[in-house]
Amino acid sequence: MIVNTEFPLPGVPHPVSDFESAPFWQGLAGGKLLAPRCTRCERFHFPPLPACPHCGDSTLDWRELVSTPVVYSWIVVHRATRPEIPVPYTVVLAEFPEGIRIPGNMAGDASPLLRAGAPLKVSIASRDGLHVVVYDRA
């Protein structure tokens, strides 16, 4: 996984970290993309929840995702919610072989080249203490 790539969107507000999502944000800060996995049914889920959405068990562990995701869907944003965010930018919903989908920004202007099922490379961008998932074409 590539760490400290170019930050995709200046001016983005910091997300709120709560008890369920703290390991996700701590993982990104440490250069790892982590997702919760149920120790009972051994299935991953995202976004983080207090219990497994598949079986209801609350015993979860966090595993690093090292597999190659593919494009599930994407959207090109042409009107930002804040004036300091440059447009257009692309948000990708990436599907991992573990059965979960994680959103992130697309690096650069690759949106014309995107297609469903295309493999993606995962990286983590950092700025001012904020760490986010960024995707690029593999």
UniProtKB/TrEMBL annotation:
**Residue ranges annotated for the ChsH2 rubredoxin-like zinc ribbon domain, each copy included:** 25-60
Q: Which Gene3D superfamilies match?
A: 6.10.30.10
Enumerate the InterPro entries for this protein: ChsH2_C (IPR002878), ChsH2_Znr (IPR022002), NA-bd_OB-fold (IPR012340), Thioester_dehydratase-like (IPR052513)
Every copy of the ChsH2 C-terminal OB-fold domain together lies at: 62-123
Protein known as? DUF35 domain-containing protein
